[in-house]
Every structure is written in structure tokens, then in C-alpha cells.
Amino acid sequence: MTMTHIATGVERTAAPKFPIFSLLEMYWSAFQAWRERARARAMLHAMSDRQLRDIGLTRGEIDFVVAASARERMRARI
Fold first, then answer.
1. What is the reported pTM?
2. Overall number of domains in the chain
3. Taking a C-beta distance cutoff of 8 angstroms, is the pair 59, 52 a contact?
4. Is residue 53 domain-resident?
């Protein structure tokens, strides 16, 4: 940017995104979130019953807790 652009207040705007790119970004983001949930689920299942009890969980609650945390993050984005 040159001084003329700054002095006159003309700003460059980002090039418009093509719908296919935003669709791919959405799919990529969903895939990454799915992998993160899978890692969390695997980590919790790898813990012993005593470790789970220490953090206040049972084996039956693992899927619920992982899904609930994902829903909370989605609500925070909106």
C-alpha cells in the first residue's frame, strides 16, 4: 500500500470467496472437529476406571461428555 492509499482512506478489500472454497472450508472444519472428538474419546477410553472416577466420569458417560462439549463449542461460535 502506498501513502496515497493511506492518506485518502482507500482500503483494499479481500477478493470475494468462491462458494466452493467456503464449502471446502466448512467440510475441512467439520472433519477436524470429528477427529478431535475421536481423539478425546480414545484418550478417555484408554484411562482406567479409577482415573475416570477421579475426574467424575464413568465409561458409559464418555460418549455423552464428548458430544456435549462439541455442542457447547458450536453454540459459542454462533
1. 0.63
2. 1
3. yes
4. yes
